[in-house]
Amino acid sequence: MKPAFWNRKRLVMARAPLAAAIWVAMSTAAVAQEAAPAPATETTVGDKKDGDAVLQTITVTAQKRTENLQDVPISIQVLGTDQIEELHIADIDDVFKLSPSVSFQRQAEVPGSYVVYMRGVASGGDGNHSASQPSVGIYLDEQPVTTAQGSLDVHLYDIARVETLVGPQGTLYGASSQAGTIRFITNKPDTTAFAAGYSGELNSMHDGDNGNVAEAFVNMPLGDNAAIRLVGWSRSDAGYIDNVSGTRTFPTSGITANNADRASADYNYADTAGARAALKIDLSDNWSITPTVNYQRTHTNGLPAQDETVGERELMHFYPEVATDEWVQAALTIQGKIGNFDLTYAYSNLDRDIDSEADYNDYGFWYDTLAGYGAYFYDNDGVLVNPSQHIQAADRFKKSSHEIRLASPTEDRFRFVAGYFWQDQEHDIQQRYRIDGLADDLSVTGWASTIWLTKQIRDDQDSAFFGEMSYDFTDQFTATVGARVFESNNSLEGFFGFSRGYSSQGSSLPINRYGEAGCAAAYGDDSSSWVPFNGAPCKQFDKSIKENDWLGRVNLAYHLDDEKMIYGTWSEGYRPGGINRRGTLDPYLSDYLTNMEFGWKTSWNDNSVTFNGALFQEDWKDFQFALLGQNGLTEIRNANQAEIRGLELDLQWAATYNLRLSTGLAFYNAELSENYCGYLDANGHPETNCPAGTIPPGEDDPVSGPQAAAGTRLPVTADFKGNVTARYTFDLGDFGAFWQGTIVHEGERSSDLRDLENGIIGNLDGYTTLDLTAGLRRDNWSVDFYIKNVTDENVANYRFVQCPETVCGAQRYTIVAPPRTFGVRFSQEF
After folding, report:
1. Do 88 and 786 touch, CB atoms closer than 8 A?
2. In a 10 Å sphere around its CB, with 0-12 CB exposed, 13-18 middle and 19+ buried, how is residue 464 labelled?
3. Domain range for 317
4. pLDDT tens profile 105-129
5. Angle (CA) 799 800 805, round 5°
């Protein structure tokens, strides 16, 4: 049974007639296809029919079976191997830029970690380690590799394709795919032939440093029934942010901090190295086994952020800002046949360790400036010390999953996919907020110079039975229904807070105390009686929450002819609730997304043109919203209801044998459909009626009205995002040559859902960037020259402050994209 506050009043029998009634208004599309053929001296990427240019046929596995992309009645954007190379896509950031339906926030403290959104389903949360689970699932082959702290930044080399599945994928992909799914599909070992290749790249940034990339792969058959594929890469990303020299004087003590030992130009560099090994063994004509191991280590220094009070692409920080993100992912896939049915078993395990240090001195400075907090920090002699804080963190992730599924033959009139999925992910959290020289009686016991300690273990488990069935009523008309029955169990336990000697001990109620005051309330004043937890003074809380429910999907597809299809979809996605990092707060509810779409996939002029699109409406219920609360702790609350309406378009055109044009466009209207009051009612549901003077339950002070009124725009996502690419290939003597240009535009975006906070932080400006590439091909080698961000736009991706906006809002940080970058790349394959 669910707790009362989980009750969504989901009327099961009401779903089917609703879905049937609105299917004409539902759907999907936005598909990226490759490519017009090149001259004879260049590898062709399309098919040639009577001398005319046509687009290549792309196969995908989005519905957990191999299908022609144009025949899949869901919205998918695909980047294939050729496009990944042509567009110089090296990391997940490049994928997001070229995906009109995707928006994201790049986390400042953790290298390569992103909070990813689709279709405007974005609350603007800060992606803290104890924040909500992702609303967009990131998959590396068969395994979801998303964590609460962001996705893996997988280096994209020797990748077969990137599939972006837009809209709720709840039935086949589950909790992590509320708004969509992104799948990175690697090239698999090939038993039929030897192949190898390598590439090297040098690049240089305008007013920045130099970088380089080295990559190689080899595919080796091992007899007739086995092959191994080995891949390796090394990448150095140049810095472009200057940590300028300066001082900061704290008003209470008069202490002046100096960052001369930290100041440097282009200080935000990163070094990445990794490898992948995959072995395929054909046990028989129908059975194969493929174990795979992926490894990557990224070390970063500095933040890719600017402080506007200092200057463009500049900031002034005083403490170490370094991070190392190291992960190993092991996977095992077994594929075979039972009669005519395809059986797939996929196991995977991810170990990810992140060690980081971060400057947090704004917190101490602004609280000292506004409230005199510097008077509370002294050394063992009672002398005031610099109240600046810096964070030392160690995050340990373990994630394992099993999936087994059975699929009937794709050519059957009635066909199905059915399976079982189980996943467990554990996060061992340690965050140590340090003030150098802090007195022992102000430090957390056993942790010198530590004003605040977080030692927690978070565990998220979920399991599900899932399936979809399709039936061809005629050769033209197909109906698909799907469901996922799931159960989730989320828990958080541990310690958080101050030492006993620090004056701010939490609520006067013992049940709400935290830090060592909470230990005393739980175990008594004698610290020798406290039960330690994972190195912390005690375990203050141990909370868990369970949930079970089901999701549905209905899809109807009609083929007007062999090259044109329309379809409608009603689908659902969800994201589990959980426990707040501040364990004294109530749990937050799960949130649900209901999607209604109408879409089309069409091919014209003998497949020289494809035009696909989707028109949709999504209703987001009780959505989770993360904010910085007391002491700068992330708190998650249910913000209430939102509605997103949108249109997505994709056009691919092989204009001539030499010229290929493509564009992807997304238009969104994402807004609150009810007031956001910022608190729950007496029944644990988001309150929507809060006129000025209303006193929230359990509070003493009245509110001044809703924090965001109905009609407020959702943050992070622009009203419009789009891109256009033109590629022209031609013969140049004995060489195949090409030039290519890509324009990307994204409109203005708000930073925060709440009116007051967004007014302080401000909107992110819209931008337009231009990338140019030219190159030569001959035999088995190629050389490319490129310029990214030709006009040197200072692109803003995310804006944040180090403590609550009303305190630290005068000092904003903006994560900015790299400046104009010149590069040359040489590749060869055998």
Report:
1. yes
2. buried
3. 4-674+710-829
4. 776 555 556 788 999 998 875 555 5
5. 130
Q: Which of 162, 172, 289 is nearest to 225 (CA)?
A: 289
pLDDT grade, residue 38 (50/70/90)?
A: very low
Write out pLDDT tens, residues 771-818. 999 999 999 999 999 999 999 999 998 898 988 888 999 999 999 999
Q: Does the residue 684 lie in any domain?
A: no
Which has the closest alpha carbon to 714: 802, 619, 648, 629?
Answer: 619
Q: Is residue 697 part of a domain?
A: no
- How many whole angstroms separate alpha carbon 378 and alpha carbon 437? 8
Spatial contact of 45 and 37, defined as CB atoms under 8 Å apart? yes
* Percentages (nearest 5) of helix, strand, coil residues in the chain: 10, 50, 40
Instruction: Note whether residue 688 is domain-resident.
Output: no
User: In the numeric block, which tokens belong to residue 719?
Assistant: 């009203």
- Give dist(CA 514, CA 532) in Å, integer: 15
Q: How many domains does the chain have?
A: 1
pLDDT of residue 111: 54
| One-character DSSP codes across 670-739 | EEESS-B-SSB-TTSSB-----TTPPPTT-SSPP-S-SB-TTPBPSS--SEEEEEEEEEEEEETTEEEEE
Of 622, 620, 594, residue with least CA distance to 26 = 594
What H or E segment, with its residue span, contains residue 275?
strand 270-282
Q: Which residue has the tokens 């736009």?
A: 793
Distances (CA, A) of 755 to 104, 676, 714: 21, 10, 11
In angstroms, the CA 486 to CA 428 distance is 25
Whether residue 691 lies inside any domain: the answer is no
Please, which residues bridge with residue 742 across strands? Answer: 725, 771
Going 145 to 146 to 148 to 153, the CA torsion angle's sign is positive
What is the rounded CA–CA span in Å between residue 110 and residue 799?
Answer: 15
Beta bridge partners, 204, equal 210, 822
Q: Residues 706, 676: contact at Cβ < 8 Å?
A: yes
> Where does residue 527 fall: left (phi above 0), alpha (psi -120 to 50 degrees), or beta otherwise?
alpha
- CATH number of the domain bearing residue 190: 2.40.170.20
> For a pLDDT cut of 70, what percent of the chain falls above it?
89
Most confident of 37-46, 65-74, 334-343: 334-343
Residues shown for the chain? 830
